[in-house]
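Sample 1 of the test manifest.
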Amino acid sequence: MATHYVIVGSGVAGVTAAEVLRSRAPDAQVTMISAEAAGFYSRPGLAYYLSGRVPERQLLLRSPANLRDLGVRWVQMRVNEIDVTNRRIKLADGQKIPYDRLLLATGSRAMPSDLPGSELEGVCYLDTLDDARNLVQRARRAKAAVVVGGGITALELAEGLHARGVHVHYLLRSDRYWANLLDTEESRLVEDRLRADGISIHYQTRIRQALGSRGKLEAIETEAGERIACQILAVAIGTRPQIDLARNAGIKVDRGILTDTTMVTSIPDILAAGDVAQAYNPILGQATLDTLWPTARNHGYAAAHTMLGDPQPYQRHVAMNVTLLAGIPTTIIGAVGSGSDADLVAIARGDSETWRHAHANWVVVERHDVNRIRLMLGERSISGAVVMGDQSLSHTIQRLIRTQADISPIRATLMQESHAVPKLLADFAASLEHLHGNHAPH
Amino acid sequence: MSIDRRSIFFDLTRANVLARGCVQPDAGRCVQCGICSHNCPLGLDVRAYAWRGIPITDSQCLTCGQCVARCPRGVLEFVPLRPES
């Protein structure tokens, strides 16, 4: 009988795995189960939909019909339980689906607000396509919005709502934005840009409660007693991997579902991939969470190969994200920060725990208006970088970090002549590429 | 006819880019937001190429650079079709 591969979740990890399984095992049966009616869509693209840069239809990547055309059996239903002993899963409608190998790619969800008044209509998140639709709808009528939280999603909410004509108050519990990743000056660059756009930033401000009448949000009250009238309270305080299904089945979990480097969980026929997987990281010697698209895609690819009986351990690349922070193109690579951020209670979206493993390195900063390069220098190599503004060197720096290039020839000069950083790096990378051939891979 | 020399130079340069250059995506940076496809004047599905990490070799591609300029994550860049010998 044909092997039956079952995938729970229709995000990038699940769909990548389905594509690999479909192409490598044409005779096998592949079933994808998801509660998302739209199938596979670009979650990071939701921010661009909110700000009006792309229409909603542009986000849709594989509809259920597309997936069926691929030869994937599509089941739109919530999964209630995994029966590990009999190797089958039970769906919300009572249906039972047997599996030979099961991949859990259930993703993560926004941490809900626990403030008094969080149940009011108008308290929003930016998590799913439905959330984005809801925000777009509400923005049509809303005059003012309050945004709380940190990381990339909080800014996407602030900027997206602002772009839709809503006056935005961004409330920070701390005294600066994304304090455990950015340095003081980088935070200020972002905050200055937000203010210049017309967004009001309130520092060291905590909400006591959300207030409303007849179930609808009307204002928030701060701990200092100030009231801010608003029709939207957008919350981005972090994400939480969806591990309940795995935990209830007796699979080992920590913050996410624990896996080895081939994405196998504590139960051999069950794998995990994407935001929900807390995969063992041999470099750090511990299992870490990432909420990055490329990580999820690599997880899906590695998981599918393990399911096929051809394990190819997940190659951990240096965690990297490119994003717009208040409109400033920003690349974050490797270990750049440490500590915690009062505005986030858990890992944000587009974030990696590995970014906060910066040691007491030497830091070199090259600054020119909003263009800024911060390099974290180890003894011999660059261990992390934040590139803001001009991105012409971001690919080069990414390569130098990923390959752990020995920078001793230019290290002393980098530290002494920070204004010459771009030229030094460009020339050095060019000389390395010349040594190792003209077409070094990205 | 003073414009001719300049326009011929421009046309030759453009022809050179068209003949020798193409848009290459870096799949590792792409999050499939679709801004590239949305802004392609010819309606090419640039994003589908980015998913597979293969260059946009569609003969209709004008190498106009709309997708390269608008991608918020620096996924796309112009590269020579064949390295110059």
